[in-house]
Amino acid sequence: MRIPDGRQAGFTLLEALIALTILAGATAALMMLIATNRRAQAEAHADISAAIEARTILARIGRDLPLKVGTLSGVFGDGGIWSVQVTPFTPADGYMTATNPALLQVQVRLMPAMRKTISIEVVSLKRMPR
To answer: Which 3-state string (H, E, C) describes the chain?
Structure first.
């Protein structure tokens, strides 16, 4: 296509290269953002799964895991490590009463296999078995 002064209309090679460079930069930035988002999503999923596993272990105490003073530990199938520490609970005032039965403090710690840098801890009180 010709314009009135005799030059051809369109983009020069330099303009096309600059446009492609800008497009490539924007695409690379978008891909990095997607990769970061996926990594954060996987870490959040691992944290939630670990918290659920810790609550599950806490629920098992007194049923299929013994509720007695001491420490238990184990390894999940995926390589995560868990430990349970049961200690006598002493109230802030320091003594037990009839309305305050003997309690045990149950502390569950979990180190997920996917994220060895974090540790999840769940603490609860359970009534001492009679």
So the answer is: CECCCCCECCCCHHHHHHHHHHHHHHHHHHHHHHHHHHHHHHHHHHHHHHHHHHHHHHHHECCCECCCCEEEEEECCCCCEEEEEEEECCCCCCCCECCECCEEEEEEEEECCCCCCCCEEEEEEEECCC
pLDDT per residue over 57-72, tens digit each? Answer: 999 988 888 888 899 9
> Count of residues for the chain?
130
Q: Is the pTM of this model over 0.70?
A: no
By C-alpha distance, which of 112, 111, 124 is closest to 67? 124
